[in-house]
């Protein structure tokens, strides 16, 4: 995968040099080319406005990009902004066969359901499942200790998919465990996103393959033609072990998620360990992606056996696993989260590293606050990506003017958890950020917790995070320098593209 990145870098550099030489030695031809690019950009802008189904803020960002930087903007759009990713006929057929099989299993249904549970079941087509045990893992050390211990105990299979695996000491430890388990006869399936893990070396992947680990890449970027896939990222982080134990949440694989990085004093993140029948739905989300990556007729057959979907009850916690992405007709993850927000009676607590809401989410939160519901949001005090970080500021005035309490986390650390708690009675945790990319472009997964001590643990962690944050006031916003205000507005306009 590193080779692909190098090839793309070389092609990009050669292209830039070629254009510079044309502009220097053939200025008249360059002027004609520039006029042509501007005409194409105008026509493309009209197409985006009238034909594409993106949310308004995404359309505005693309149009501004095409108008203000027509040459660069045009190439960026051709590479990253084309129509939604879709499964082909074979992929979709195998995915549907697997989903129908899972739905046919005798998973114990809960009765009676609350109004919220019933709505979310109808909306997502995923049952609320009881008999589970949820455990909140509050930071990297706790998360990876639990994951590595569980991997070492695997007996039948390990299914693992991550958006980012950074090739460092933590990733090497993971690799050695997976190779060891494969040598014991455990079936290991390993998947990563083609962009998020583009720097993962061929040597790393080849060592897994040599140990009989099945390796698949989600939308690999193998050429300039394939780079059009880069915008449609699979942001999920999922591990399923023996069909009975699963992990989902915000942490990728890399030393920085342990806080071992010079950029931040601490990395604040949250993961969830699930034991029990709900792992069936997490398994389904993994296999949905796996069958897409395999892209071969009959690939679902080996998974349509009950050994991959045991339903052993271990506790009393109730929940759902919701997953979705741009290949789906509906935005299921977003809509379920909106149902949760709309159900709030007293309090909505959100922690998100990238808070770039679409118009509907912004209106929903403002309405809740104006109705007297306490809405509190924690965002990073220091960002890992400047555009997204300053893009958060674009929405602060609208949030605070409605009575929403916004906090910025410790400005020496980074807050990366993706958590929402409603009335301290329902919670969600997963890979989903509260931004347009997660809602409309990425493939995401989130667990919805309806009962259990894990909800109180998330609420307690949120309160602790709030004590390590400072509240942003309307006066502070008014006193910002003109440059900071302009920077926030500009970044807010383009943040939906990232």
Automatic annotation (TrEMBL):
Annotated coiled-coil segments of the chain: none
Domain annotation PLD phosphodiesterase: ranges: 230-257, 411-438
Compartments, as annotated in UniProt: Cell membrane
Residue ranges of the TM segments: 7-26, 32-50, 62-80
EC number: 2.7.8.-
SMART domains registered for this protein in UniProt: PLDc
Keyword Ribosomal protein: no
A GO cellular component entry from the record: plasma membrane
Protein name stated in the entry: Cardiolipin synthase
Lineage: Bacteria, Bacillati, Bacillota, Bacilli, Lactobacillales
